[in-house]
Each structure stands twice: as C-alpha cells, then as structure tokens.
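Workshop exercise sheet. Pairs work together: one partner reads the sequence aloud, the other fills in the structure field after running the prediction. Swap roles for the next sheet.
Pair: D.N. / O.F.
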Amino acid sequence: MNQLPERTDAVVIGGGVIGSSIACRLAEAGVGTVLLERGALGSGSSGTTAGVVRTYFPGKPLISSLAVRSLAAYHALAERTGIDLGLQRIGLLVLFTEEHQVQDFRHTQAAQQAAGVDVELVTAAEAARLNPLVDERTILAAAWSPEAYACDPAAIVRGYATAAQQAGAILRTETPVTGIDPDGRVHTPAGSIRADTVVCAAGPWAGTVAAMADVHLPVSTYPVDMLLTDTPSSAPSDPLPMTMHPSSLRIRSWGDRILVGMGRPAPDETRQAWLQRVSHHLGTAFPALAGNGLETGWSGDLDVSPDGMAFIGRDPSRPFLYAAGFSGQGLCQAPAAGEIIRDLVLDKESWTDTSGLSTARCLSGSAETG
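Structure field:
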C-alpha cells in the first residue's frame, strides 16, 4: 500500500456516495483532497438502499430541495463521465389511508413545489392505475411524484470516485481511521496525514469517527433488511413505481421480482414474527401479494439522525465538517451535500440556507444532559 502524503488540504473519511461526492466537489474546486475508506468504495450504507433517487420527501421541503438539485447533478454526471448510472424513471407513489395524511399533504404541497418538486394529489382510483397492485378500497388518496428513478448506487459511487481522481484527489480504500488529533492529524494503519480540514462522511460509523475528534455527532445506526418476493402474473410488464405505505412498508419492481422494505425485526421480535408482520402488511396493502413468500435480498446499517434529516455542517470549535445522519436518504442528497461541504471548506456562501442542517438543531436542548 502506498504511503499517505504528509499533509493535504482536506481529508474526507468515508467512501460511499456522500464521501465520493464530497471528494469530487472539493478536488474540482482545487482543494487538495485525500479520501479514506475503511473497506471498499460504496461498501457501507450506499449498498443498503432500495436504489431509488427521488425528489419528494413528505414534510421536509428542505431535504426535497437538496434532492431536486441532486437529481439534476446525477443527470449531469452521467452526461459528463459517460458512466451509465442506471437511471430509469419509475415515479414515487405515497399512499394515504387517513384524512389527516391528505390534509398534511395539502398544507405542505406549496412548500414542496417551491422547492422544485413535481408532486400532486391523486385519487385512490388514479393511484391504482399508477400501481395496479394497490387496492383502491384501502386508501383515500395518494401523492404522485413522477421524478423518481431507479438507479445503480455502485455506478454512482464509481462515477464520483473516478471524477474525483481525475481532478487530483487521492483515494485510499481498506484504510480505516484509528485516531484524529486536535491539530488535524488523521491516523490510519497505513500512516498518518495532517489535514487543514477533516470531513466526516462515514455513514454508520460517523458517530465513532466524530468522537475521535472530540466532536459529538448525534447519529445512531438503524439496521435494515431488504426482501424479495415474486411478481404476480396480474402485474403489468412496465416497472412498478416506488410505492410507500403509511405502515412504513415500501415496494418497487426489482428486475422480474418485487423489492420489499420495512426495516428489520425489533429488539424483542423474532425474525419469523417480523416476517409475518411484513407479510400481513403486504397482503393488506397489496392484496395481489397476499400469501407470497419473502426471501432475504440483502441487509445493512443506515446512519440515522433523531429527526430523520441529515446533518451537514461545521463544528464551531475546530476544522471538522460532517455530512451524516441521512437516514436512508443519502443517495438522494449526495450531490447537494458535496456542494454544501465544498462551500463550507472554501468559506463561500452556499446556494441555499443550510443553517437547518447543523447539529445545533438537535444538540441545543440536550447539551447539558448529554
């Protein structure tokens, strides 16, 4: 393994979609950048998702604005690099089963549209037309956002990593960080490197990495299992949209099968009991899937914030920046997060007000209690 350089302008810790996007943006802005990844590129949360980039995030117009900007950046990345990111428009359908959900949508629709999101309220019958597996008798209405795309997360990471290297960034895989000194010296088994700025984009390990720098990043890990089931013969040949049910159940087409997500067993719940619970919700929400067997697709951990919104910002007392706690939505926000971190490093005004993304929103009321 090549020795690390003695110093650099910025060290980015984490080689998933967030870290590779940040490294690309920094390097292209002329910032000397070294990215350190504990395993292989994209081996953390980036490989755990349902592989969908979307722009509509109910109740979170700020996150939606990041997602709108990120989707445009993905299209530009594909054109610029020639790398096929697997982008295929499938749309997003969010089902509503209670009147207050419909009213919540109506109250926030204008803010979503102001953020650039294409989203509308559709009837139960229209929702069933968009996804024929939906039983219109079980829902009141739905939100429909056509700008949602199936994608290849590994190709996205590869695209940003390649662009970062072409811009001069140094990428080191199989290089876990073992310590961070107050002066910005970052230690690894391959040696140490001093950085003017340290950027934590370590996904499920973000809290641990931040603690090495004596920074409190209030993120936790949330385990998820993605399941697969057979597509019924009654389903259309076109891919089904990503469809989200209030129970937290979500499905979408996955090749000739259907991908199913609903977290993972609770701490006091057996896997068999959890699978039965998923199967029950699946059969209730999508009757054509009732009785279908469920098989394990893949599993992993997500980095989660207390309110489900990402932390993107700077520690006030040291040159330590963070982009973590994306709560399973990092794929949809990575390009915008890269821009925000780049602007923070350059001490440049960002394209949007990012104050609401700081950890201060979760730490201000709990600093005394820890």
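Discussion prompt: The chain has nine helices and 19 strands. What would you look at next?
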